[in-house]
Amino acid sequence: MNASDSTKELHEFILQHKDDYCQLAKAVWSHPELAFEERNACKLQVDLLKQFAFETITPYTGLETAYFAWKGHGEVSFCFVAEYDALPELGHGCGHNLIAAAAVAAATSCARLLEQNNLPGRVVVMGTPAEESGGGKVRMLEKNCLDGIDAAMMVHPSWRSTPDTGSTAIRRFDVEFFGKSAHAAAAPELGLNALDATVLLYNGISVWRQQLPESARIHGVIKEGGHAPNIIPSQSLSRYYLRSTSDDVLDCMEKRFFDIVKGAALMTGTTYEIKAHNVPYRSRKPNDELNRIFFQASCEVGLNPVVPNRPGRGSSDFGDFSQKIPGIHPYFGIASGEIAAHSKAFCEAAGSDYGMEQMLKAATAMAKVGYTFLTDPAVRRKVINGK
Prior knowledge:
The chain is an alpha/beta fold. The protein has helices spanning 3-16, 18-30, 39-51, 96-116, 136-141, 194-208, 247-268, 288-301, 318-324, 344-350, 353-375, 377-384, and strands at 55-57, 67-73, 77-82, 121-127, 151-153, 156-158, 169-178, 216-224, 235-244, 271-276, 327-328, 331-333. The strands form three sheets. The chain has a six-stranded mixed beta sheet, sandwiched between helices. A four-stranded antiparallel beta sheet has the order 8-9-7-10. A two-stranded parallel sheet has the order 6-12.
Protein backbone atom coordinates (compact mmCIF):
# COMPACT_ATOMS: atom_id res chain seq x y z
CA MET A 1 0.00 0.00 0.00
CA ASN A 2 1.43 3.36 -0.99
CA ALA A 3 1.18 6.49 1.13
CA SER A 4 -1.78 8.06 -0.67
CA ASP A 5 -3.73 4.78 -0.50
CA SER A 6 -3.39 4.62 3.28
CA THR A 7 -4.55 8.23 3.62
CA LYS A 8 -7.60 7.43 1.49
CA GLU A 9 -8.49 4.33 3.52
CA LEU A 10 -8.07 6.14 6.82
CA HIS A 11 -10.30 8.98 5.62
CA GLU A 12 -12.94 6.61 4.26
CA PHE A 13 -13.20 4.87 7.62
CA ILE A 14 -13.54 8.19 9.43
CA LEU A 15 -16.27 9.31 7.02
CA GLN A 16 -18.13 6.03 7.55
CA HIS A 17 -18.29 6.82 11.26
CA LYS A 18 -18.42 10.61 11.04
CA ASP A 19 -21.77 10.76 12.84
CA ASP A 20 -20.19 9.18 15.93
CA TYR A 21 -17.27 11.61 15.94
CA CYS A 22 -19.33 14.71 15.21
CA GLN A 23 -21.93 13.78 17.82
CA LEU A 24 -19.11 13.45 20.34
CA ALA A 25 -17.70 16.86 19.42
CA LYS A 26 -21.12 18.51 19.55
CA ALA A 27 -22.08 16.86 22.85
CA VAL A 28 -18.87 18.06 24.52
CA TRP A 29 -19.34 21.54 22.98
CA SER A 30 -22.94 21.84 24.20
CA HIS A 31 -22.03 20.79 27.75
CA PRO A 32 -18.81 22.68 28.60
CA GLU A 33 -16.98 21.56 31.71
CA LEU A 34 -14.11 23.36 33.44
CA ALA A 35 -10.71 21.96 34.42
CA PHE A 36 -10.84 18.67 36.36
CA GLU A 37 -14.65 18.68 36.13
CA GLU A 38 -14.92 17.10 32.63
CA ARG A 39 -16.89 14.05 33.77
CA ASN A 40 -19.38 13.99 30.90
CA ALA A 41 -16.71 14.61 28.25
CA CYS A 42 -14.51 11.85 29.66
CA LYS A 43 -17.38 9.35 29.79
CA LEU A 44 -18.51 10.10 26.24
CA GLN A 45 -15.03 9.45 24.85
CA VAL A 46 -14.48 6.28 26.86
CA ASP A 47 -17.88 4.89 25.88
CA LEU A 48 -17.23 5.52 22.19
CA LEU A 49 -13.76 3.97 22.35
CA LYS A 50 -15.26 0.88 23.98
CA GLN A 51 -17.64 0.59 21.04
CA PHE A 52 -14.56 0.33 18.81
CA ALA A 53 -13.17 -2.44 21.08
CA PHE A 54 -10.53 -0.34 22.84
CA GLU A 55 -9.48 -1.36 26.33
CA THR A 56 -9.92 1.57 28.72
CA ILE A 57 -8.84 2.75 32.16
CA THR A 58 -10.49 5.67 33.96
CA PRO A 59 -9.79 7.37 36.32
CA TYR A 60 -6.14 7.43 35.32
CA THR A 61 -2.97 8.59 37.09
CA GLY A 62 -5.12 9.59 40.05
CA LEU A 63 -7.20 12.08 38.05
CA GLU A 64 -10.92 11.43 37.93
CA THR A 65 -11.42 12.87 34.45
CA ALA A 66 -8.32 11.40 32.79
CA TYR A 67 -8.40 8.17 30.81
CA PHE A 68 -6.11 5.72 29.00
CA ALA A 69 -7.32 3.57 26.09
CA TRP A 70 -5.47 1.18 23.81
CA LYS A 71 -5.87 -1.36 21.04
CA GLY A 72 -3.46 -3.52 19.06
CA HIS A 73 -0.29 -5.38 19.91
CA GLY A 74 3.45 -5.14 19.44
CA GLU A 75 6.42 -3.36 20.91
CA VAL A 76 5.79 0.07 19.33
CA SER A 77 3.14 2.47 20.69
CA PHE A 78 1.79 5.74 19.31
CA CYS A 79 -0.42 7.99 21.40
CA PHE A 80 -3.21 10.32 20.27
CA VAL A 81 -3.77 12.95 22.96
CA ALA A 82 -7.21 14.37 23.77
CA GLU A 83 -8.11 17.60 25.57
CA TYR A 84 -11.69 18.51 26.51
CA ASP A 85 -11.81 21.18 29.22
CA ALA A 86 -13.69 24.42 28.59
CA LEU A 87 -13.12 28.06 29.50
CA PRO A 88 -15.01 30.00 32.17
CA GLU A 89 -17.88 31.99 30.61
CA LEU A 90 -16.71 31.26 27.03
CA GLY A 91 -17.38 27.53 26.97
CA HIS A 92 -15.35 25.86 24.21
CA GLY A 93 -13.74 29.10 23.07
CA CYS A 94 -10.53 27.16 22.50
CA GLY A 95 -12.17 24.27 20.64
CA HIS A 96 -11.11 21.42 22.91
CA ASN A 97 -14.29 19.56 21.95
CA LEU A 98 -12.77 19.17 18.47
CA ILE A 99 -9.44 18.04 19.90
CA ALA A 100 -11.14 15.19 21.77
CA ALA A 101 -13.18 14.04 18.77
CA ALA A 102 -10.17 14.21 16.44
CA ALA A 103 -8.09 12.07 18.80
CA VAL A 104 -10.79 9.41 19.05
CA ALA A 105 -11.39 9.43 15.28
CA ALA A 106 -7.68 9.21 14.47
CA ALA A 107 -7.07 6.38 16.92
CA THR A 108 -10.01 4.24 15.83
CA SER A 109 -9.14 4.71 12.16
CA CYS A 110 -5.47 3.93 12.69
CA ALA A 111 -6.23 0.82 14.75
CA ARG A 112 -8.70 -0.45 12.17
CA LEU A 113 -6.21 -0.16 9.28
CA LEU A 114 -3.51 -1.94 11.28
CA GLU A 115 -5.94 -4.72 12.09
CA GLN A 116 -7.15 -4.98 8.50
CA ASN A 117 -3.58 -5.38 7.25
CA ASN A 118 -2.62 -7.70 10.12
CA LEU A 119 0.16 -5.34 11.23
CA PRO A 120 1.58 -4.89 14.72
CA GLY A 121 1.31 -1.61 16.53
CA ARG A 122 -0.23 -0.39 19.75
CA VAL A 123 -2.61 2.54 19.31
CA VAL A 124 -3.17 4.60 22.46
CA VAL A 125 -5.59 7.42 23.25
CA MET A 126 -4.84 9.46 26.36
CA GLY A 127 -7.45 11.76 27.80
CA THR A 128 -5.77 14.70 29.51
CA PRO A 129 -7.93 17.09 31.56
CA ALA A 130 -7.34 20.70 32.56
CA GLU A 131 -5.05 22.06 29.86
CA GLU A 132 -6.41 25.55 30.49
CA SER A 133 -3.94 26.48 33.26
CA GLY A 134 -4.62 23.36 35.34
CA GLY A 135 -1.65 21.45 33.98
CA GLY A 136 -3.31 18.05 33.68
CA LYS A 137 -0.48 16.63 31.57
CA VAL A 138 2.14 17.88 34.03
CA ARG A 139 0.37 16.08 36.85
CA MET A 140 0.00 12.95 34.74
CA LEU A 141 3.72 13.00 33.92
CA GLU A 142 4.43 12.93 37.64
CA LYS A 143 2.73 9.50 37.56
CA ASN A 144 4.79 8.36 34.53
CA CYS A 145 1.88 8.43 32.09
CA LEU A 146 4.18 8.26 29.04
CA ASP A 147 6.01 5.12 30.08
CA GLY A 148 5.85 2.68 27.16
CA ILE A 149 4.77 5.38 24.67
CA ASP A 150 7.18 6.00 21.78
CA ALA A 151 5.64 9.17 20.28
CA ALA A 152 2.54 11.31 20.72
CA MET A 153 0.54 14.01 19.00
CA MET A 154 -2.62 16.06 19.16
CA VAL A 155 -4.26 18.57 16.83
CA HIS A 156 -5.65 21.94 17.86
CA PRO A 157 -8.23 24.11 16.06
CA SER A 158 -7.15 27.52 14.84
CA TRP A 159 -8.16 30.00 12.15
CA ARG A 160 -5.74 28.33 9.73
CA SER A 161 -3.97 24.98 9.29
CA THR A 162 -0.27 24.86 10.12
CA PRO A 163 2.39 22.41 11.28
CA ASP A 164 3.58 22.65 14.86
CA THR A 165 5.76 25.75 15.18
CA GLY A 166 6.45 25.35 18.89
CA SER A 167 5.24 27.24 21.94
CA THR A 168 6.59 29.15 24.90
CA ALA A 169 7.22 27.88 28.38
CA ILE A 170 5.14 29.73 30.95
CA ARG A 171 5.48 30.61 34.63
CA ARG A 172 2.65 32.37 36.44
CA PHE A 173 2.83 34.44 39.61
CA ASP A 174 0.52 36.28 41.98
CA VAL A 175 2.09 39.36 43.61
CA GLU A 176 0.57 40.81 46.77
CA PHE A 177 1.73 44.06 48.41
CA PHE A 178 0.98 44.96 52.02
CA GLY A 179 0.93 48.55 53.26
CA LYS A 180 -0.97 50.56 55.86
CA SER A 181 -4.43 52.09 55.64
CA ALA A 182 -5.06 55.76 56.33
CA HIS A 183 -7.62 58.39 55.41
CA ALA A 184 -6.49 59.75 52.06
CA ALA A 185 -7.67 63.29 52.85
CA ALA A 186 -7.30 63.65 56.62
CA ALA A 187 -3.98 61.87 57.22
CA PRO A 188 -2.37 60.52 54.04
CA GLU A 189 1.08 60.78 55.66
CA LEU A 190 0.15 57.89 57.97
CA GLY A 191 -0.47 55.45 55.13
CA LEU A 192 1.66 53.11 53.05
CA ASN A 193 -0.02 52.68 49.67
CA ALA A 194 -0.08 49.07 48.44
CA LEU A 195 -1.77 50.12 45.20
CA ASP A 196 1.12 52.49 44.46
CA ALA A 197 3.46 49.52 44.70
CA THR A 198 1.33 47.57 42.21
CA VAL A 199 1.26 50.52 39.81
CA LEU A 200 5.04 50.88 40.04
CA LEU A 201 5.38 47.15 39.34
CA TYR A 202 3.09 47.46 36.33
CA ASN A 203 4.99 50.45 34.97
CA GLY A 204 8.36 48.84 35.66
CA ILE A 205 7.33 45.81 33.62
CA SER A 206 6.01 48.03 30.84
CA VAL A 207 9.41 49.73 30.56
CA TRP A 208 11.29 46.43 30.80
CA ARG A 209 9.17 44.91 28.04
CA GLN A 210 10.92 47.11 25.46
CA GLN A 211 14.18 45.22 26.04
CA LEU A 212 12.75 41.70 25.96
CA PRO A 213 13.75 39.41 23.06
CA GLU A 214 11.08 38.67 20.46
CA SER A 215 10.75 35.14 21.80
CA ALA A 216 9.67 36.39 25.24
CA ARG A 217 6.36 37.72 26.54
CA ILE A 218 5.12 39.11 29.86
CA HIS A 219 1.62 40.29 30.65
CA GLY A 220 -0.45 40.87 33.76
CA VAL A 221 -3.59 42.28 35.35
CA ILE A 222 -4.39 44.09 38.60
CA LYS A 223 -6.92 41.94 40.46
CA GLU A 224 -7.35 44.00 43.66
CA GLY A 225 -6.38 47.61 44.34
CA GLY A 226 -8.45 48.93 47.22
CA HIS A 227 -12.09 49.52 48.09
CA ALA A 228 -12.67 53.27 48.43
CA PRO A 229 -10.92 56.30 46.93
CA ASN A 230 -10.62 58.01 50.31
CA ILE A 231 -8.87 55.05 51.96
CA ILE A 232 -5.23 54.40 51.15
CA PRO A 233 -5.14 50.71 50.15
CA SER A 234 -3.30 48.48 52.61
CA GLN A 235 -3.36 45.53 50.23
CA SER A 236 -3.18 44.97 46.46
CA LEU A 237 -2.96 41.90 44.20
CA SER A 238 -1.82 41.39 40.63
CA ARG A 239 -1.16 38.34 38.44
CA TYR A 240 1.57 37.98 35.80
CA TYR A 241 2.47 35.45 33.13
CA LEU A 242 6.11 35.13 32.00
CA ARG A 243 6.78 33.26 28.75
CA SER A 244 9.77 32.32 26.62
CA THR A 245 10.82 29.60 24.21
CA SER A 246 14.09 29.31 26.16
CA ASP A 247 14.37 28.05 29.73
CA ASP A 248 17.55 30.09 30.19
CA VAL A 249 15.82 33.29 29.10
CA LEU A 250 12.86 32.47 31.33
CA ASP A 251 15.19 31.98 34.32
CA CYS A 252 16.62 35.47 33.72
CA MET A 253 13.13 36.92 33.29
CA GLU A 254 11.99 35.43 36.57
CA LYS A 255 14.95 36.94 38.43
CA ARG A 256 14.35 40.37 36.86
CA PHE A 257 10.64 40.16 37.65
CA PHE A 258 11.37 39.41 41.30
CA ASP A 259 13.80 42.36 41.41
CA ILE A 260 11.15 44.71 40.01
CA VAL A 261 8.68 43.53 42.64
CA LYS A 262 11.27 44.16 45.35
CA GLY A 263 12.02 47.60 43.91
CA ALA A 264 8.36 48.59 43.93
CA ALA A 265 8.11 47.56 47.57
CA LEU A 266 11.23 49.54 48.53
CA MET A 267 9.94 52.68 46.79
CA THR A 268 6.64 52.55 48.65
CA GLY A 269 7.70 51.22 52.03
CA THR A 270 5.46 48.18 51.62
CA THR A 271 6.14 44.47 51.97
CA TYR A 272 5.29 41.82 49.42
CA GLU A 273 4.64 38.14 48.78
CA ILE A 274 5.07 36.27 45.50
CA LYS A 275 3.22 33.00 44.98
CA ALA A 276 3.28 30.65 42.00
CA HIS A 277 -0.11 30.49 40.29
CA ASN A 278 -0.90 27.06 38.80
CA VAL A 279 1.82 24.79 37.47
CA PRO A 280 4.49 25.96 35.00
CA TYR A 281 4.51 24.59 31.45
CA ARG A 282 7.63 23.83 29.44
CA SER A 283 8.16 25.01 25.86
CA ARG A 284 7.02 22.74 23.04
CA LYS A 285 9.62 20.86 21.04
CA PRO A 286 8.14 19.92 17.64
CA ASN A 287 9.49 16.81 15.93
CA ASP A 288 10.51 17.57 12.35
CA GLU A 289 9.67 14.17 10.86
CA LEU A 290 6.22 13.98 12.45
CA ASN A 291 5.59 17.55 11.28
CA ARG A 292 6.60 16.60 7.73
CA ILE A 293 4.18 13.68 7.61
CA PHE A 294 1.32 15.74 9.05
CA PHE A 295 1.90 18.58 6.59
CA GLN A 296 1.87 16.20 3.62
CA ALA A 297 -1.25 14.41 4.85
CA SER A 298 -2.95 17.77 5.49
CA CYS A 299 -2.37 18.67 1.87
CA GLU A 300 -3.83 15.34 0.74
CA VAL A 301 -7.08 15.80 2.68
CA GLY A 302 -7.56 19.44 1.68
CA LEU A 303 -6.67 21.31 4.85
CA ASN A 304 -4.47 23.64 2.79
CA PRO A 305 -1.78 24.11 5.45
CA VAL A 306 0.62 27.06 5.50
CA VAL A 307 3.90 27.61 7.33
CA PRO A 308 3.71 30.73 9.56
CA ASN A 309 6.40 33.41 9.38
CA ARG A 310 7.33 33.04 13.04
CA PRO A 311 7.13 30.43 15.81
CA GLY A 312 4.12 30.12 18.08
CA ARG A 313 3.93 32.25 21.23
CA GLY A 314 1.15 30.56 23.18
CA SER A 315 1.70 27.96 25.90
CA SER A 316 0.39 24.45 26.47
CA ASP A 317 1.08 21.57 28.82
CA PHE A 318 1.70 19.43 25.72
CA GLY A 319 5.08 21.14 25.82
CA ASP A 320 5.94 18.96 28.80
CA PHE A 321 4.95 15.85 26.81
CA SER A 322 7.13 16.92 23.86
CA GLN A 323 10.14 17.37 26.11
CA LYS A 324 9.74 13.77 27.28
CA ILE A 325 9.08 11.93 23.99
CA PRO A 326 8.85 12.93 20.28
CA GLY A 327 5.61 14.78 19.61
CA ILE A 328 3.77 17.46 17.65
CA HIS A 329 0.82 19.80 18.27
CA PRO A 330 -0.18 21.10 14.81
CA TYR A 331 -3.27 23.18 13.97
CA PHE A 332 -6.27 22.92 11.67
CA GLY A 333 -8.37 25.83 10.45
CA ILE A 334 -12.05 26.08 11.46
CA ALA A 335 -12.85 29.54 10.08
CA SER A 336 -12.83 31.27 6.71
CA GLY A 337 -10.84 34.21 8.11
CA GLU A 338 -8.75 35.15 11.11
CA ILE A 339 -10.48 34.88 14.48
CA ALA A 340 -9.00 35.02 17.97
CA ALA A 341 -8.81 31.98 20.21
CA HIS A 342 -10.53 32.30 23.58
CA SER A 343 -13.35 34.33 22.04
CA LYS A 344 -17.09 33.98 21.43
CA ALA A 345 -16.44 33.76 17.69
CA PHE A 346 -14.01 30.88 18.20
CA CYS A 347 -16.54 29.07 20.38
CA GLU A 348 -19.15 29.39 17.64
CA ALA A 349 -16.68 28.08 15.04
CA ALA A 350 -15.84 25.09 17.27
CA GLY A 351 -19.51 24.08 17.23
CA SER A 352 -20.15 24.78 13.55
CA ASP A 353 -20.67 22.27 10.74
CA TYR A 354 -17.55 23.61 9.03
CA GLY A 355 -15.56 23.07 12.22
CA MET A 356 -16.75 19.46 12.29
CA GLU A 357 -15.79 18.89 8.64
CA GLN A 358 -12.32 20.29 9.26
CA MET A 359 -11.96 18.17 12.39
CA LEU A 360 -12.58 15.02 10.35
CA LYS A 361 -9.87 16.03 7.88
CA ALA A 362 -7.45 16.80 10.70
CA ALA A 363 -8.23 13.42 12.28
CA THR A 364 -7.30 11.73 9.00
CA ALA A 365 -3.97 13.57 8.83
CA MET A 366 -3.40 12.69 12.46
CA ALA A 367 -4.19 9.01 11.83
CA LYS A 368 -1.76 9.03 8.90
CA VAL A 369 1.03 10.22 11.20
CA GLY A 370 0.34 7.47 13.71
CA TYR A 371 -0.04 4.76 11.07
CA THR A 372 3.19 5.77 9.32
CA PHE A 373 5.12 5.85 12.58
CA LEU A 374 3.87 2.39 13.57
CA THR A 375 4.46 0.73 10.18
CA ASP A 376 7.60 2.37 8.75
CA PRO A 377 10.82 1.59 10.67
CA ALA A 378 12.83 4.18 8.70
CA VAL A 379 10.39 6.92 9.66
CA ARG A 380 10.42 5.72 13.23
CA ARG A 381 14.20 5.98 13.40
CA LYS A 382 14.08 9.57 12.09
CA VAL A 383 11.43 10.50 14.63
CA ILE A 384 13.26 8.98 17.57
CA ASN A 385 16.57 10.52 16.47
CA GLY A 386 14.89 13.91 16.34
CA LYS A 387 15.36 14.38 12.58
